[in-house]
Amino acid sequence: MRFTLRIWRQKxxxxxxxxxxxxxxxxxxxxxxxxxxxxxxxxxxxxxxxPVAFDHDCREGICGSCGLFINGRAHGPxxxxxxxxxxxxHFKDGDTITIEPFRAKPFPIIxxxxxxxxALDRIIQKGGYISxxxxxxxxxxxxxxxxxxxxxAFDYATxxxxxxxxxACKNASAMLxxxxxxxxxxxxxxxxxxxxxxxxxxxxxMDIEGFGHCSNTGACAVECPAKIPLAAxxxxxxDFIWANLTPDPQIK
Amino acid sequence: xxxxxxxxxxTKTEPSISWTxxxxxxxxxxxSGDLEKxxxxxxxxxxxxxxxxxxxxxxxVVGAGLAGASAAASLGELGYQVKVFVYHNSxxxxxxxxxxxxxxxxxxxxxxxxxIWRLFYDTIKGGDFRARESNVYRLAEVSVKIIDxxxxxxIPFAREYGxxxxxxxxxxxxxxxxxxxxxxxxxQLLLGAYAAxxxxxxxxxxxxxxxxxxxxxxVDEGRARGVIVRNLITGEIHRVAGHAVVLATGGYGNAYYLxxxxxxxxxxxxxxxxxxxxxxxxxxxxxxHPTCIPQSGEYQSKLTLMSESLRNDGRVWVxxxxxxKRAPQSIPENERWYYLEEWYPSFGNLVPRDIASRAAKxxxxxxxxxxxxxxxxxxxxxxxxxxxxxEVIYQRYGNLFEMYEEITGESPWETPMRIYPAVHYTMGGxxxxxxxxxxxxxxxxxxxxxxxxxxxxxxGASALMQGLADGYFILPYTIGDYLATQLFVKNxxxxxxFADAEKETRExxxxxxxxxxxxxxxxxxxxxxxxxxxxxxxxxxxxGLSEAFSKVRELRERFWQEVRVPGTGHEFNQNxxxxxxxxxxxxxxELMIVDAYHRExxxxxxxxxxxxxxxxxxxxxxxxxxxxxxxxxxxxxKPPILHKEPLKFEFVKPTVRSYK
Amino acid sequence: xxxxxxxxxxLHTSVxxxxxxxxxxxxxxxxxxxxxxxxxxxxxxxxxxxxxxYAEFMSTNPAIRILExxxxxxFILHIYQGLYFILRERKSxxxxxxxxxxxxxxxxxxxxxxxxxxxxxxFLVVHLRHFFVEHRVLGxxxxxYESCKAAFENPYYSAFYVVSMVLLAFHLAHxxxxxxxxxxxxxxxxxxxxxxxxxxxxxxxxxLGFAIIPMYFLLKTF
Lengths: 252, 660, 222
What we know:
heterotrimer, A: alpha+beta, Ubiquitin-like (UB roll), Fumarate Reductase Iron-sulfur Protein, Chain B, domain 2, 2 domains, 5-stranded mixed β-sheet, 7 strands, elongated, C: mainly alpha, 3 helical TM bundles of succinate and fumarate reductases, 77% helix
């Protein structure tokens, strides 16, 4: 297959950046999108040009490293997948493909298609955990967790931290990301002691990082490779309102 | 210093495999006495560091996978000053995240007779009696606490309706001791360790440096004193001093280019440590998993694992005519060769991993392979679908069928899957003592980066267990024993050792950038991978290994003359990163070949064609090879030095692993 | 605004502000329903008797007057937060995408809240000037019914009114669902489906009900 690629090139954070157009030929329909870019890069190196920088690692959809905005969509034209699990057979021979980095103020561009997503880690730092020191845990079966709650917790916990929710959101909001963690821990008995503080602190950090607000367009959930449902956001909202409007029942 | 830069002088004669034998390793700090009490007594005998002194001690942790993140978090909780370096853009990206199946623990929640002893025995037998009894027993012992801790962290393990933890059987075990979180256990455990790490970051005990790759370990007067790292975004080289250095940088399966490892996984940290004096143990012990989606073309960058459980209902076959290009559905039954069923009538398609892997290689070598590259066999579900109906098969494997279809574009409902074995995990790694310390005082290796617990073959669901055991429950105790001696050491990067290491690093970068040849790093890496895969993969032979050795050496020389790395060292340069990693794979590849060549027996993953029974079973030689092969770097171009650590079996009797 | 100084700080977070948007938005929807019910009296064909009585009641009843203050506060808060978000939006993505296929992952209504809000806001200003200011501030000699009739018989005004109602429909098509989601009330996909149906019904019925009135008056002039 043959493709014309319009790729965002930007030398570093200070550079203005621009689109450049490349041609690739002889691409197998079974090649993944990233492998197609590998082919392009090999070609560019041979031509003495600077290869295109892009993030990737596991290439099986779980590490959350890859993230390209392809033809106007986070992770490309299919819903709920990562870029590494997008295959060229989903494009037509001769297509022109536009590739941009994930764009958001809290995701500064490092080079070309590589962005810094450490803002998401800083949200987690504010409370995306249960404060338990190694060695202090009781027996694992001492606190039963109803299966439906455990299953929902798992659904929320599968977030891979790729940032597609931010990239797809018209307001560059990180609500789905934050809500996934808040909701995961809200489902479990172990998460209760810090539940109220967690949601407040994580939301505050989300704002400090410069993410936008959530306007419930639902774009995030359509693009989310981990299929985090919008119910996570509703859960966060509930917890947030509750935590701010009611007295803490744990303080007697 | 200059020796690191010099390419070995090309000799006229063919390079051949050689090594020298050094003194055996007699001190590994394994305690003696009752197996059950060893770890407890050992812990009680370790030196302690008082809380107010812990704040004065700095520990460098490299890598933040299961082992690194759990260790860094736990050390932070103890009060040490911890610096973590990761080459990823977040500590949550480490490849532990991709582990699917589960984590073993001797909880005996099933009341099925599990015990620490049984987990210990299964693991040491699974490793084909090439691991230390003391280490493996300790692993089984702490496995219990791992589950407790992970549940307390909020990891959403699978549960039964009563609210208690569910377990399943795994890898042919006779007990159900594997805890799991659907097919994403590794992800959930890693995110748990990652979250614990982020908590320590917030508390100010741990500082995580993103996009920083280790390029050298600094050893001064025989002790690890710090590391040289490169900021991958700016290209700056930094010296970092610490009272101890912990390497948690994973395995080296990517030496083979194609593997189930993540693309960036590499051996640079452990290889640089090796060059600074750390012994490298059993480098040729590499696990090859039989059911992976095969390579579909030259462009392919990695291989994806498909759960082994598929062989319960799938039948493996190839066309009876080599090179038969017909669509599989149109090949009549009598022209299909169910070679596993024919060769192993009693086990059929359910032969153990290594046999299944080797058989697939054999039929493909004979020219029967299918698919565009001829390196695949069919795994056919049509009989099972006929017998049980679509519904049942969907219940069992629906998600795997979807995943296969997503990747290959072919539906396993219509056409058989194509599968092939792939490199998956490395049991070998840096040699460590019972305290997880390498032979360089102050330098530790944990997780897949060390060699410690899996012998010659790792059991399923044991990698997660080992990574977390090392990080949460072993290293935090044992490292104190060393740090207690370092209280009055003032850390300084202003030493000759640091200056030398930095200079060498800069020169190495300069050298690879200035070669300006004609071939890309990937082209070399692919070629290296093919050599290793063909002769140091599923089956090894003296002649094949000898040939591979000279090929690797020749390729390495060509690499340093012909490689082309665009860009500079003062910027974000992914090709430079790749070139440095691949250059280390070349040297490691040579050592893997030497190790495979020297071990004249078959054990676990290591099948020497010369040493097998008539039925193709591994023929172990406990009299001569019941030892850990710990290799010492002797210098550029010099044959490595072999130190043997004899393995004593006081509690289990090595037997022939039988699958009949 | 005095209220702001005593507002707890959580209302200044992005989530808190959305809660204000949601609560005021849903409150304004209830107002729209009441307002529409009253307006439909215009269609009774009694020369405006019922409508004028209703208008009289609404402008003199003390309970209503108090509610009116709440209504104004609701409008102001809703608009204030809306403007805040409009100004904020660009900041979180200073450089936009060259190509954005947003249609594939979100509805046109959800993405045009700004546009529909601005149009409805302009309408609101004109509308208030025309009726509220005219009657309640300047003390118009006309009855309320006469005012309406005069306005709606003007084709330009009616066209503006109808177009505004279309945009109001857009606003409600996302707003009702969005408000409930922001209050955390949409806990699962079943509730989501029901809410989306009700939202669609409201977005269709309320603006249509309002729009029928000027069209009725306009058509009567022919």
